[in-house]
Specification:
mainly alpha; two-stranded antiparallel sheet; 2 strands
Length: 269
């Protein structure tokens, strides 16, 4: 007869130390490979040069203006795309006829590669921030939309029937049944949506703009400044992680009723 064994995960500080160790290991391997010329520093840069460039950009204040533009575009794309995704997700999930009629069109639009829309948005909205916001919205919207739609569809019919039997109105159903059911799906999608909002902003800047991190990366790439390209990528990575951490904090506050993730894993012996 199989005996269940329980493996307890390390504490949070230990996990954090392991994550930092992975990062340090990555930089050490990068440093060794470029210092021994196994990888050419011209094509791959060096970690010390990238860190030095990033530090000097922040210290001199050069990066702040461009970072502010990119974060503004990312925030607008994230907020607008999320709001639209939630609204349309609820609507389509509660209106079966609308869902069936628009189903092929939603799938067709979702299948479009978003990058090809960037020149069109630039033509319609100019090279300012709104063409980048529009591109980011198209990326964020469908991620949130499909998760909200599925979250509402996953509501237990037993719970729904009991609530209706107790006299719950549509407003009460939305607040106490549909919304709690969809929130878990919404926040799951927001972690991905944050990254896609920034991707939309940076790709838009890369293809045509006069400011932003994508613009700086494009400028560095144009003069074969590999260190500048990696430095821009490092800044983007840091701020995506920070924004994702903020989303996690908000998620824990709003979903405090949800059971915490299991701290143990079971293994069959």
């Amino acid at each position: 007869m199989a005996v269940a064994r329980v493996k307890r995960l390390p504490s949070r500080p230990v996990i954090l130390l392991l994550q930092v160790a992975v990062l340090i290991g990555f930089f050490l391997i990068w440093h060794v490979l470029t210092a021994t010329k196994i990888l050419s520093p011209f094509f791959f840069g060096t970690p010390l040069a990238v860190l030095e460039r990033t530090w000097s950009d922040f210290a001199s204040g050069v990066i702040w203006y461009h970072l502010g533009i990119t974060l503004l575009e990312t925030a607008l794309a994230f907020v607008i795309g999320t709001a639209a995704g939630i609204a349309f997700g609820f609507w389509f999930a509660r209106a079966p006829l609308v869902s069936i009629v628009f189903d092929p069109y939603i799938k067709a639009v979702n299948a479009l590669p978003r990058v090809v829309l960037a020149p069109i948005f630039a033509l319609w909205l100019g090279l300012g921030i709104w063409s980048k916001v529009a591109l980011g919205v198209t990326l964020v919207f469908f991620i949130v939309f499909f998760n909200v739609y599925q979250g509402v569809k996953e509501v237990s019919p037993v719970v729904l029937a009991n609530a209706k039997m107790l006299g719950a109105s549509n407003r009460h159903l939305f607040r106490h049944v549909y919304l709690p059911s969809a929130l878990s799906w919404v926040f799951s999608s927001l972690h991905t949506a944050v990254g896609f909002a920034m991707v939309g902003a940076v790709v838009g800047e890369y293809l045509g703009s006069a400011a932003g991190l994508g613009y700086r990366i494009h400028q560095a790439e144009g003069v074969f400044d590999t260190v500048g390209v990696f430095s821009g990528m490092l800044v983007l990575t840091i701020f995506v992680v920070v924004i994702d951490a903020v989303v996690t904090v908000i998620e824990k506050r709003l979903l405090h009723w949800r059971p915490q993730e299991a701290q143990t894993t079971n293994a069959q012996g």
